[in-house]
Amino acid sequence: DWTTINFIDSSIEEIKNKVGNNKVILALSGGVDSSVAAVLLHKAVKENLICIHVDHGMMRKNESADIIKMFKDNYDLNVIHIDASELFLSKLKGVIDPEQKRKIIGNTFIEIFENEARKFHDVEYLVQGTLYPDVIESVSVKGKSVTIKTHHNVGGLPEKMNLKLIEPFRELFKDEVRAIGRELGLPEIFIKRHPFPGPGLAVRVLGEITKERLDILRDVDEIFMNELIDKNIYDKIWQAFSVLLPIQTVGVMGDNRTYENVIALRAVTSTDGMTADWFRFDYEFLENVSNKIIRMVRGVNRVVYDISSKPPATIEWE
Ligand code: XMP
Predict the structure, then answer these.
(1) 147 and 228 share a domain?
(2) Which protein residue has the closest C-alpha to ligand 1 atom 21?
(3) What's the pLDDT at 192?
(4) How much is the pLDDT for 117?
(5) Pocket test residue of 28, 29, 151, 275 for ligand 1, highest count of atoms within 8 A of CB
(6) Is residue 106 lining ligand 1, measured as CB closer than 6 Å?
(7) 145 and 32 part of one domain
(8) Cβ–Cβ under 8 Å, residues 82 and 53
C-alpha cells in the first residue's frame, strides 16, 4: 500500500544520502527485523552492505543453514557465516542466571562480530533492526532508566567500534516491518515467522545449558512448530515455543519407572509483545502434540501448557 511504499522510498533515499560510498555492516540473525533491514539496506547501498551471521549454537534445528540458503538463493547479498557455537557453549558452562546468560551471549557476540567487522576497513555504519517496542521497553520506565530485560545483542558495539548507527525501524511496530518485507519480496514463510529472541534457546533451556539439553529442546520445538503449521494454527499465534525445565519428574514406560525432563509449551497472542494472552488450543491439539513429543523425543516424559498472561508473567520464561 501507499504508506509502505512511501516508507521504503523515503528510507532508501535517506540512507543513500547518509551513507554515501561508505561500507555498512549488519548482524543478520535471520529474524524478520534483521532480514527486512538487510534487504532494505541492500537496495540502498548495494555491494557496500556486509551481512554477518553469527551462529551462537542456540538456534533452532537447521535454522542457520536455512537462513544462509534463503539469502544466497534469492538475493545477491554478501553474507558471512560464522559458526561460533563451541565458543558460546564453553562460556555458558555452569551459568544459570538469565541476565548472566544474556550478558555472556551479548558480549561474546560483540567480540566475534567486532573481530569479523575489523577485517573490513572503511566500515562506517552499523544497521540494527530495532523496533519501537524495544526502544521503550529497554530504555526507561516512568522516567527512570530501568532495564527489564537486556534486549540487544549488539548493544554497546557502535560506541566501541566507533560506528554510526542506522535504525530504519526505530519508530515501527512488527506488523509494519512485515508489510515492508512483503513489499520487498521476502518469502511469506520468512515474513510470518514468530519473533525469536537474540539469545535464542539459551533462555528456553532453563538452568544450565548443555549441548544435550539444547538438542532435546530443538527436537521438541520442531515437532511443536510442525504441528502448528500442519493444523493451520501458526499464523494465529504471535509466538509459540517450547521450554526445557531444569527438573526431572517421574514417569512410567512399559514396566519401568522413568525420571526425565519436563517440557513446557508456550503460545501467546499479542500485537506488540508488550502484553500477551495465552492461546486457547483445543484439547485434541494439545493431546496430540504432547503424545508426539513424549513418544518421539528421548529424555522427555512430561509436557505441560503455560496458561499465564503478560503481565504479570512475561512471554519468555527467563
Ligand atoms: P518478554 O519475555 O519480555 O518478551 O515478555 C517480550 C518479547 O521480547 C522477546 N525477548 C527478547 N528478544 N533478546 C531479544 O532479542 C532478549 O533477550 C529477549 N528477551 C525476550 C520475546 O521473545 C518476546 O517476543
Answers:
(1) no
(2) 197
(3) 92
(4) 86
(5) 151
(6) no
(7) yes
(8) yes
251 is in an annotated binding site: no
DSSP per-residue letters across 163-177: -EEE-TTTT--HHHH
Is 42 near ligand 1, meaning CB less than 6 Å away? no
State whether 14 and 101 are in the same domain. yes
Nearest to 8 by CA among 134, 152, 249, 185: 185
Specify whether 158 is located in the same domain as 11. yes
* Residue in 121, 22, 119, 37 with CA at minimum distance from that of residue 75: 37
| Inter-residue contact 309 to 278 (CB < 8 Å) | yes
Distance CA 212, CA 189 (A): 29
- Check residue 231 and give its pLDDT: 98
Low-confidence ranges of the chain (pLDDT < 50): 140-153
Q: Is residue 310 part of a domain?
A: no
Question: Is the CB of residue 315 below 6 angstroms from any atom belonging to ligand 1?
Answer: yes
- For residue 247, tell me if it sits in a domain: yes
Question: What's the gap in Å between 267 CA and the centre of ligand 1?
Answer: 14
How many whole angstroms separate alpha carbon 106 and alpha carbon 138? 15
Q: Which three cell numbers stand for residue 91?
A: 562460556
Amino acid identity at 193: R
Locate 65 and state its grid cell.
543453514
Residue 136 grid cell: 521503550
User: What pLDDT score was predicted for residue 293?
Assistant: 98
Mutate to test the pocket of ligand 1, among 59, 108, 270, 316 (most ligand atoms within 8 A of CB): 316
CA dist 194 and 190 (Å) reads 9
Counted domains in the chain: 2
Q: Is 200 annotated as a binding residue?
A: no
**Same-domain check for residues 69 and 103:** yes
pLDDT for residue 145: 43
CA–CA separation, 86 vs 55, rounded Å? Answer: 10
Q: What interface predicted TM-score (ipTM) does this complex get? A: 0.99
Q: Is 30 annotated as a binding residue?
A: yes
